[in-house]
Records
---
Amino acid sequence: MSFIDNIMAGFSLVANLESFLALLVGITIGTVAGAIPGLSATMAVALTLPFTFSMTPITGILLLLGVYKGGIFGGSIPAILIKTPGTPASSATILDGYPLAEKGQAGKALGMALWASCTADLISNLALILFAGWLASFALNFGPPEFFTLILFSLTIIAGVSGESLLRGALSAMFGLLLATVGLDLIYGTQRFTFENPNMMGGLNFIAVLIGLFAIPEIIGMVWNPKADEGKSRALGNNWVTFQEYRNSFRSIVRGSFIGVFLGSIPGIGAAPSAFLSYSEARRKSKNKENFGKGELEGVAAAEAGNNGVAGATLIPLLALGVPGDVITAIILGAFMVHGLQPGPMMFLINADIIYGLFIGLIVSSVFLFFIGSIAIRGFKYVADIPRSILFPSVMVLCVYGVFAVNNNLFDVGVMFVMGWIGFFMIQYKIPAAPFLIAFILGPLLEDNFRQSMLMSGSSASILFRGPITWFFWLLTSITVFTIARAGIKTRQNDS
Amino acid sequence: MSDKLIQLRLGIGAICLAAFLLLIAIPFWVTSPSNVPNIILSPIFWPNTLAIITALTGIGLVLSGLSLFSVKAPKSFNSEKNTRAFFRLSILGFIMGITILVMPSLGLVWTMMLVFSSSAFLVGTTYTKTAIICSIVLPLILYLFFAHVAGVAIPQGDYVRLP
């Protein structure tokens, strides 16, 4: 099918009230959840996932993508108004957003955050449409050895950049890979760590592990310290951002969007580093660099463009290669799987209508984000007033219902609770959870591709170095390990 | 907790876990057919490889922990607060355990009402009325969605059954 045919097929799939409503509801949920300190975009997407089971694949995935995009923007609202980022990605927004709020210009800062977010979101979506198809057609040449090296590279970079230490990230990834071995063996069908329990023969449920790892630790953390994250909200003020101010920051917004697109398309980097890089680049190039950190509108624009520029781009490796770039895309990968779809190069051939339907939905989401964001800015007071002592028990109830609904199985609820305590322990010991989850999802794929490679070569490891693609990924993996290890040693030397 | 202590504890923990996997868990709880032609294709190869890499990561953590300077992390809370926090955590653990035990007989909806109210009071909510109303309304709304929209068979329990 030609590009136009694909677009038309996608359009026929999403051109209905249900899809647009899902997108609208998703963005609303995401914006509200992102705006609540303590709830993150990740948690919002994870909690929304069980509600998509009864929907058609395209509607369910659009709902989740809406939550994702809304969540990333929503995080900037408390960052500006109460100096508490709703999501880690909004940390850079505080640097100039809160000083502006202190000057009584919170409305202006939030307006700029919204304009910058929508612009970056649109650029990121266009990048996704341009590059995902191209990358997928290239990835059609991949065999098991290429996929093995690609997944290995993804896991290495995710383990390396997710936390403070490469070794702790690697340990987290190892835990995830080990947990993924639970169940029946992929080739021989023999039991691995199942303890003769039929509930464990299919492996641990992905959604139970996911919600346990990302939502329950927040509840445990709340019980540990019920008074955390209480901030005083600033008034919006009467100033609103003007078109001239948007134009003045436009170069920084576009630059930040491209930084977001570039970093977002590399698995593991995520939105927070992109926001900080975009911010520092804007400060370096700005005429008002001395104002940065004291309430510079361009700083807010750059930070928001950086973190929203990632949102569409993280879907490039997911859709084209089937490799999630971060935790949220890992959840979205889970949603695809729940609906019987496997993202990757073949999806562009088999389910091109869904892919292009998603592209159309994503473009529309930027417009919806603008309108819902404008309302959310004014309505933040009501969201911020939700008491945490009511919010977190609600999250607990949502978690139990959501996890139970996956398989109608109480065992999954138990897995979720256990994973919650493991997640809390990981937070206490500064072990990043992202490598754990992504390794848990990619573990079977990694093992499967490794064993297929071995079958193909008669157990010769040389197949893992069989061509330029595998060499390229080995090289990238080596560079990643070397760079992260060197950065760690330098930091240690500076500390001492 | 200082970074040094964290690295050392994690490293020792990882080495112990790897030893447990290699010596007990994999030999006893991973079954492999006796006629596997090649060790690389055996079901135990992958878990063994992961266990060895975990051990190596653990050794790396211990070595990097030993090379770190011991800096005392500032105490963020006093011991009385700490004891109370641990007490709350143990109650939460108890609530989670009880949830699993009573859900089949009490039903998901009624159990969730109890879980909501008990966890809200555990964190010392001052919004008593809101907590009670939410503890009744939220599980019911979710029941309506999952049972009647999504078609999930929500466990009803042995006592009070919902339509």
---
Amino acid sequence: MSFLDQHLLSSLILLPLLAAVVVALLPRESVGLQKLVALVSSAAVFLVSLKLLGGFQATAAMQFKETLPWLPEYGIAYRLGIDGISLWLVLLTTFLTPLCLLGSWQGIEHRQKEFGVFMLLLEAGMIGVFCALDLFLFYIFWEAMLIPMYFLIGIWGHERRIYAAVKFFLYTMAGSVLMLVAFLVLYRESGLRTFELAVLAQSPVPPALQAWLFAAFALAFAIKVPMFPFHTWLPDAHVEAPTAGSVILAGVLLKMGGYGFLRLAIPLFPQAALDFGPWIGLLAVIGVVYGALVSLVQPDLKKLVAYSSVSHLGFVMLGVAAFSTVSVTGAVYQMLNHGISTGALFFMVGMLYERRHTRLIGEFGGLKNVIPWYAAIFLMVCLSSIAVPGFNGFVGEFLILLGSWSYDWRLVAAASLGVILAAAYVLWMVKRVLYGEVTNPKNEGLRDLSARELCVLVPLVALALFMGVASPLFTRTIEPAVAGLVEQVRAQQQGAPSAAQAPVTAPAPGAVAEGH
Amino acid sequence: MPNLELQPVLPALVVALTGLVVLLATAFTPKGRRAPALELAALGLVGALAVTFRVAAHARGSSTGGAVVADDFALFFHFLILAVGLLAVLLSPAYLRATGAERGEYYTLMLWSVVGMLGLVSARELIALFVALEIMSVSAYALAGLQRDRVESQESAIKYFITGAFSSAFFLYGVALLYGVSGSTRLSVIARAVADPPAGSATLALLGTGLLLVGFGFKVASVPFHAWAPDVYEGAPTSVTAFMAAGVKAAAFGAFLRVFLEALQPLRQDWQPAVAILAVVSMVLGNLGALAQSNLKRMLAYSSIGHAGYLLVGMVARGPVAAEAVMFYLVGYAAVSLGAFGVLAAIARDGREPLSLDDVAGLGERRPVLAAALTVFLISLTGVPVSAGFVGKFQLFTAAVGAGYTSLAIVGVLMSVVSAYYYLRVVVAMYMREPVEGVEWAPTGLPARLALLVSVVVVLGLGVYPGPALAAARQAASVLAGAL
């Protein structure tokens, strides 16, 4: 067996790093070559990542595991592995990165070399976060990833880019440093002298301490998601970032919040997760409705998409808070959906911006008559975003709402309001941008999508449709992992003496298959 | 008299003699020709490193009359200090030329300051330690004032000298009181005496400990004994500032560790809360102070006060992890401060160096490699992975939390977030702002490039693969009785 096969996950992390070094060493003048190397290598990473699908078993176990001793005195090792939850997030990352590089082929007009380098570094960091099974390693990737993102926003962003970049960095760092202290307290209290996630999750610390540690973790992840009221960095960062930055932010970085809850916070502190669950659910639903209401009144397309993310991620967190097999499967699925449809939306807003240098909805109107291809795809992406049946979003939201009903029907009822509001703000926006007469003469001469732009958008739309009709192909691998996680956590919650509430029984695995 | 073994002082001897040779070479070089001071100094330091290797291999644990030892602890710091000296020497020539301060005695003073540092970390006896402290400090005072035509440089030297003399007096008084308790200046005897003080001298021991704490507090620039640092760091020639931030801090912490964990370990109950307070106020005031600075050297000076605070966190925590964490952190911090000040020094031109954010604006575009190096240093100072600074902070805070000082760790990480703000300002200026017209910096010379490259490699290397350095620090720390 080749090195690649035995160290598939390491290869996925190392390849972009290597490519970043290569791009950095290319001569400054050969801009075309720099872009090409970055694009080709990220596409190669995607192809390599597809090998994961081939060898993946639909069980709850961690797979493709790798372990290398690193700091044995501290019980720190380079531990990688993926299960059905992280598998798809890794694939989402490797899928979106080449599209971002292709999509920014022309939009990035200066310092293309650094752009390629930072995108590739970011990719390595993101994959690392989803594969790390050691708290120390996780934290390294988690924090290191901030730096390329900070540069992407700060160098290639729009007018208020510096403010947005610094705000993004400080917010995220402030959230995560307390998590670091929580790691250390956990390390001390567990007495196991290891940072290995699986071992620590086997023997939870006393409930009183769990609450504090969970709070520290939850703060870090809630900022990342972002959950209301920790979302204020998001509109700035999303709006000011260049298109590729917004796509990666929305597509992958936000997923890390939900992923962090599922992978770290809940398994490590099952009792606290149970106690805090209702509050997380409440904040999630507030986020759903609040994000939707703010989207409704946005005059700026990019802001609208940004706030819609707050709303969509609220759904995800509702599924996580309810913590049944169905709801969490839905949450994971919805994370993927959001990555695809919101990623596509940011791409399309960016394309419009490249043509008109404005993002104000009021500047547009009747685009369907001028750029029909753009209009058709835009409409499809919007339908996917508002979860119309047949598109991916429907499956995710349905599973979340279904799986959360027995947890607290009031939350589900309130969140359903968000579904309606989403249709309202998106369709109203579509009407104002695409339909009607061309009122603004500046819009008359717009050119339609180029072949390159179609290459970016068609895979996304195709995947959105495919995930809408062929969801079992995906849930087949997600569900066993989620079921295993839910079972493990429920077992510990029952084992520990607690007062909060009776645990929700996990529905039979077959329930997911009925969801569509 | 016990047998006099010279091995432990051999490296220091080599450096001291090199200093003399440099001085003579400068004196006898005809006017108008350049003395080979840089080459000689570098050669001497490399020679001293080689000698240290030999001592480590053949004479580990030997001692010169029990006063100066070559134990693992001393050897660890010897390597560090000699490397710091070498890098500082490499950073100097271009800067001295650009600012017109090129003098032979510069290198001699730097070498002699290194001699003091070497003695400081290997002394197991307080008089020897004090003499070493003075050798280091007096050379540093003179170095700070070497740019005679710059009033800031003179101010720096005077300020450094007066506060330094004060702190020496505190230190010496502390030594005297401990002598009163134990009848000896040897660390091992003091340790026995303070563990079970003779009747009526318990207070004396505490007073002596307090005075030593003040003395070390001055030298490592911890709040409230920090007031000299910003002015001195700002006024001194930048290559000297780099040397002080990296070398003086490391050597002073080395002596601090040895005295407090070896001689004063029995009084830990008493000094630990005091050091904890110093740690907190240093972290908070150092970082908040840096926030308000517009001058880069001053900003880095305040940040160095903050870093003294992080290091003190490691002094508070008990157990072997703490001492080794402090030592590991010192290595990373030495590389980072040499690098950060070194970048400023490396591109000085016509008596000017980059001091404001305007001065570094657009550096990312004009000097991509240099800007990338400075970014690495700033990231490490912030404590973001992948860097020595992150691993170092991780270990310090692990030690603190492990010892039950979770609150110290929380203050520490929050202050790291504050520090991110002012370090990022520099990165913002370099990468996200347009260059200011008319600002043109000198190309980086080969010696400086080499020094900066080494610093970057160390910072990233310790961030990715800290194992060997940590193991060395652990072995070194195991010498200290109180670290166990």
